[in-house]
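Section 5.1 Outputs to date
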Amino acid sequence: MTPPVQLTLLGTPSITGRSGDSRGSSFQGQALALLSVLAWAGDRGIPREKLLALFWPEVAAYRASHRLRQLVHRVRSGPGFGGLITGKSELRLDPERAVCDLWEFIEARKSGHFERAVELYGGQFLDGFFLHDAIEFEHWVEGRRLALEREYHETLEALAVQAELRHDTVAAADWWGRLAEHDPLSSGVTMHLMAALASTGYRARALEQARLYQEQVRAKLDASPNPAVSALAKELRKVTVDRAGDAGTLRPLVLGVLPLDSWDGSPETQALAHSLTEELTTAVSAVPGIQVASRSWMAGTHEGAGDVRVIGERLGLDRLLEGSVRQAGARMRVLVRLVDVADGHQLWSQCYDRVVGEGFEALDALAMEVVEAMRGHLSMER
């Protein structure tokens, strides 16, 4: 039997009863807020004490408990809503009596049905909903809203990377484009989209995307755009088309950047290695003709496989950039290696000595130096 209640929480919230009638007007305010909290809690449920602290933190306990009982009774009394809220000390929604787009979104992500998850994400969590005089609830909503936006962002990124790894440049450009609409101020997303558009032969659109990013960063953040975007745009203007293939297309090299190892395992060196890995990934993403596996995929794969050939086979890579960071006092030594994943042979390596306390600008400059040197090797190799 079809569950009697359809709860929509992604985008403009609404509640549809058994007969299909919308109850958005009669279930506004605290009733809708209560159902939203219970839907988020899922099978775990939520203790009454937490609900009291969320909705009436400054009201005496006995009065707040009375208000909660009245609110639960009002929801249960609605036609077709009997039995929707279950439990005594802990309240939860009966999954046999309700369906919820939030539940479906979470389940789609868990099962790897990312396209379905994107379809289900109708907008921000409780978009446009406001509960008067409920600061704790508003803070709760904001936290969940940001968490879901991150999950949506990760889902689009996963789809884009999957498309790149199977060399479907058209699909990759589409997914990166949707991600750019969701996060237009991200230089990383912008560069991925530019590379994908260039790979499909739309270099003019890639250059237009760079311009839009730069304008929005200046207008909305009153800040300077990431110079890496300008550098990529400059490269795209002078890149040569591979005449051996279809006109207007590029032959991408798929490369992964493994998390740099920390020699001593100290928190300081680990943080340094993590920051430099991020900078290297961003810098190499700006090189035309190279597709880069996402940081999250590389980190997850690296944990489960020690052989670079296994990692490369899993993600469909051509090359891997790996290395290590060693810190001694105020100085650090960075060793990087470019490896052919087909046979595990080292193709190129370089060692760099730097002062640790030079800040993010020094890490960015070092990453650019590494990528330029690696790029020179790849040019000779090709």
